[in-house]
Amino acid sequence: MYAQVQPFIQDTQMLNDFAHRYKQTKEILFQLLDSPVQFTQHIGGTRHMKYPTEPILDILVGVENLHQITALDEKRLNYVGFYRLHHAYHKKVMMAQFNNLTELKQISRLHIIQMSHPIFKQYQTIDHLLETDISFATQFASYKEQIISQQTSIRSYEAQKEAFFIHMTQHRNYKL
């Protein structure tokens, strides 16, 4: 798998492309046979381009129960180009779609979370803040630039972004 963080983009002309890809992916997710998917939401910088972001379509996927994502569901998602990322994720399943099977650059990610879990609401709240709170988005953009100057591995970068969101929502009086 491509181990580095991809170069950031902030091209608002690409918004329509990402919105179209989201719509296509949403249709695929809901049309899978016996799909446990109950909800989808395009999240992150590719939805609004309020800050520089990687060119990866991030989708929040809500399910009634995380254990509904069975081996059969994974196989169905494999058939449409999504593969499970086997890292230690807390209360979520991550799946990615890649540009090709040689380079393995992520082009789309599914953040599959149980809708009744607080992490699901946290994702929605943070996405709302990044779109509507200029100060929050600016702080996040600055923090991302700082991280990328020190770390370029995807795993470290993603862990530090998650830590930033937890810190900001717990210590800065942002309501979840």
UniProtKB/TrEMBL annotation:
It comes from the Bacteria. SUPFAM superfamilies: Nucleotidyltransferase. This is GrpB family protein. The lineage of its organism: Bacteria, Bacillati, Bacillota, Bacilli, Bacillales.
